[in-house]
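TA notes, week 10

Several of you asked for a full example with nothing omitted. So below is the full record: structure tokens for the whole chain, then the designed sequence directly under it. When grading your own attempts, check the secondary structure regions first.
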């Protein structure tokens, strides 16, 4: 195990700095994918500075090709720096099922705070970093739940235009057929016209999100938008919100219906809060599953569940032998 100072090409560093700096404020955590054989040679040396203050998960990938003793020492090295560590062989599937649980543990306090505020289902945003020959495929293998990076605030104020957004969503869905796409949508922002709102509805119907966190815009004292003259009347905002939720729920129910009869792998969260005697967990696409089991289970256990009923916001099923 040797810790050396590394030099990267200035062009790589400049692009990396721009990308991380632009997005890091929107992230809840950072996941860094490294080659277990050469951890420091496969990481950007400026990452610590650029992501300072964000909880960090280090994924040591390709452990099947690394010396076990060296892997243990590298894991200890990163833990001493305050990072959580997950050992994985993403290509072979080892460790990938634990990714969601590792992120949950990393953000335990934040998730608890969200739950206290009634935001238990809020999407977690994780920035995944890794050089192309180490991180790109691994990121896809780690978790097939793919919340959209940019919150969709409305249909006409996008970082990219609608056609580009739809093309990107289609490309993702074609590359990973079982992907789960989610987003955040705010309606009633000052100046929003009926045409703007209908454009948002059109986008929701075309993408068919698995779920969406929907909100009604409300003025906040001290923000520029609170002083805009073209505020939307409350009645219109609530009407648009109801129409949006109807479409989002229709898409969610349709997406969930595709799971009927399927056997899925579920990460056990614990006993169901709403059904005595049942268990609750999440699929790798973050679908909530309530299911029965004839044997006791433990939190963090991976089980196979046959889906027997689908609902708008959850799935019901029964544990089966793998």
């Amino acid at each position: 195990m040797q810790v050396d100072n590394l030099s990267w090409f200035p062009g790589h560093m400049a692009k990396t700095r721009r990308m991380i700096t632009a997005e890091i404020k929107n992230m809840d955590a950072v996941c860094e994918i490294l080659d277990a054989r050469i951890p420091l040679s496969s990481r950007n040396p400026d990452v610590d500075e650029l992501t300072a203050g964000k909880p960090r998960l280090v994924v040591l990938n390709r452990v099947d090709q690394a010396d076990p003793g060296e892997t243990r020492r590298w894991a200890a090295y990163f833990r001493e720096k305050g990072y959580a560590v997950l050992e994985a062989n993403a290509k072979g599937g080892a460790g990938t099922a634990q990714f969601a649980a590792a992120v949950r543990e990393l953000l335990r306090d934040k998730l608890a705070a969200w739950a206290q505020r009634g935001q238990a289902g809020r999407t977690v945003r994780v920035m995944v970093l890794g050089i192309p020959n180490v991180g790109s495929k691994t990121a896809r293998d780690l978790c097939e739940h793919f919340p959209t990076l940019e919150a969709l605030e409305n249909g006409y104020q996008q970082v990219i235009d609608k056609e580009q957004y739809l093309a990107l969503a289609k490309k993702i869905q074609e590359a990973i057929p079982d992907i789960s796409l989610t987003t955040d949508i705010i309606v009633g922002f000052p100046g929003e016209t009926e045409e703007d709102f209908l454009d948002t509805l059109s986008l929701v119907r075309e993408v068919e999100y698995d779920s969406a966190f929907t909100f009604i815009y409300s003025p906040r004292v001290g923000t520029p938008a609170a002083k805009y003259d073209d505020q939307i009347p409350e009645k219109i905002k609530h009407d648009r919100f109801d129409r949006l939720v109807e479409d989002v729920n229709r898409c969610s129910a349709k997406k969930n219906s595709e799971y009927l009869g399927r056997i899925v792998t579920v990460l056990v969260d614990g006993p169901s809060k709403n059904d005595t005697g049942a268990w609750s967990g999440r699929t790798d696409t973050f679908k909530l599953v309530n299911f029965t089991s004839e044997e006791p289970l433990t939190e963090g256990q991976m089980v196979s569940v046959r889906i027997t009923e689908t609902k708008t916001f959850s799935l019901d099923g029964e544990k089966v032998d793998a």
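Residues 1-12, 132-138, 148-159 have pLDDT under 50 and may be disordered. Use that as a sanity check on your answer.
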